[in-house]
Design goal:
The complex is a heterodimer of chains A (about 100) and B (about 325).
Chain A: H1 8-26, H2 40-43, H3 55-68, H4 78-81, H5 87-98
Chain B: H1 3-16, E1 22-24, E2 27-30, E3 45-50, E4 56-66, E5 69-75, E6 78-93, E7 100-115, E8 125-142, E9 148-167, E10 186-202, E11 208-222, E12 229-230, E13 236-254, E14 262-276, E15 285-297, E16 302-315
Antiparallel strand pairs in B: 1-5, 2-4, 3-4, 4-6, 5-6, 6-7, 7-8, 8-9, 9-10, 10-11, 11-13, 12-13, 13-14, 14-15, 15-16
Classes of the chains: A mainly alpha (about 100), B mainly beta (about 325).
């Protein structure tokens, strides 16, 4: 029996969950423990540096995203990944790879 | 067939074959391997100079690297990332004063495992890397009579390292760039253990193979965090970082006329990275890097020495 194709909203929700988990894992801050930073929308405006992420932390984040966003999104190339400076940039890159737009 | 030829054949085969399951294949041609953490690459250069006395010299600096990117794989307790890269290099200078003729290839295979530790604790990534290098380089040698000569040395090296990285957790909330200076340390560690094999051959002394083990530990502290803090000067932020590193290499086996030895290297590095708070600002941006190191390193060819390096830069 063929499985139902997920809606754009479901795809966005899955990608948001994975991105948030990956950022929280890579950043030394306990983001999920504070109401000010406990959702992707609330941390979208931060740069990766402001989240105290070293280059290795950023690599951790992309490894996690690329591993867990499949099959909805294709892996993000190193060239594109290196241009993402903020969490919002990361979300845009992943969304573009999955062919979905940021919800208005 | 010698080990060197086998390795060369292996590398050529990898260069010729399309990598299965790759998301992207990328060739880069650069003047040199840039430091890993720098976002720039110098172009490859070829220069020919005709001197007034009829002599001429040529310089070539080129590294051609093939670096495919593999798909990452999710597992029950983490995420795996596999990659490899292979490349050939030529660094040649025919001038009589400082002739240089280095050529060879290098290949690295790597596996990175992001461990699914709790997100409010320290993160942890383990990686396993294997590197093979084979090449020839021109070296200045002095014979028993004191005469100096330039001879080709063949170097072959294999290195396998298991690395671990962890960034300790921080309390509080993230700070925006340009916020006031406050005690908010970021502390992260990198460690590695590995085995190496280093063979040198040519028409001079120092031929043979050294095989041994190594261990490296690096601790970094950014006392005000990694977020650039306000300097109090117009439009300038800064991020001070202190890094302490220690490594030891212990030869276990020796062949030829090379003798077993132990090499230790310690270093402390203070980096003051300044940045403009606003893009397009006309502020002059200084940078300062002070490093003090003592010891020797077999794998980079560093003899036992003490070294203090100060790098001061200004950007507009």
């Amino acid at each position: 029996m063929a499985s139902a194709t997920p809606s754009k909203k479901q795809v966005r929700q899955k990608l948001d969950d994975v991105i948030y988990y990956a950022v929280d894992k890579a950043s030394p801050y306990a983001l999920a423990r504070h109401v000010e930073t406990n959702s992707l929308d609330r941390i979208a405006g931060y740069t990766l540096v402001e989240l105290s992420m070293t280059l290795t932390d950023v690599a951790i984040m992309w490894t996690w995203i690329n591993a867990y966003c499949q099959p909805e999104a294709k892996p993000i190339s190193a060239d594109v990944a290196s241009k993402a400076k903020t969490v919002a940039d990361v979300r845009l890159a992943v969304y573009a790879s999955a062919g979905v737009e940021v919800a208005k | 067939m010698s080990a060197g030829r086998l390795i060369a054949l292996w590398s050529l085969l990898l260069l010729a074959l399309p990598a299965p399951g790759t998301a992207q294949s990328l060739f880069t041609l650069a003047k040199d391997d840039p430091p890993v953490e720098q976002p720039w690459k110098k172009p490859a250069t070829v220069a020919y100079t005709k001197n007034g006395d009829g002599t001429s010299n040529a310089t070539i600096d080129a590294v051609l690297r093939y670096a495919p990117t593999f798909h990452d794989v999710a597992t029950e307790n983490g995420a795996f990332h596999t990659d490899y890269n292979a490349g050939v290099y030529v660094h040649r200078d025919t001038s009589a004063l400082t002739p240089k003729n280095d050529r060879g290839f290098q290949m690295t295979l790597g596996e990175r495992w992001v461990v699914d530790t709790p997100n409010d604790g320290p993160n942890l990534v383990l990686s396993l890397n294997g590197t093979v290098k084979y090449g020839k380089s021109l070296q200045s040698v002095v014979d028993a009579s004191g005469a100096r000569a330039l001879l080709d040395k063949t170097k072959e090296r294999e290195l396998i390292k298991l690395n671990a990285y962890s960034h300790l957790p921080k309390g509080g909330l993230p700070q925006k760039e340009g916020s006031p200076i406050a005690w908010d340390p970021d502390i992260f560690f990198e460690g590695a253990v590995g085995v190496y094999s280093d063979r040198s051959s040519g028409n001079s002394s120092g031929n043979g193979r050294l095989t041994g083990t190594l261990a490296i530990l690096t601790a970094s502290v950014a006392p005000f965090g990694l977020t650039p803090r306000s300097t109090g000067l117009a439009g300038l932020t800064f991020t001070p970082t202190l890094q302490l590193a220690a490594q030891t290499e212990q030869d276990r086996r020796e062949t030829g006329d090379r003798a077993k030895d132990r090499y230790t290297l310690y270093s402390v590095t203070l980096t003051l990275a300044f940045a403009k708070l606003e893009a397009g600002s006309s502020a002059v941006v200084p940078s300062l890097n002070i490093s003090r190191s003592t010891g020797a390193d077999l794998l980079t060819g560093r003899p036992k020495t003490n070294k203090t390096e100060i790098a001061l830069g200004i950007a507009f």
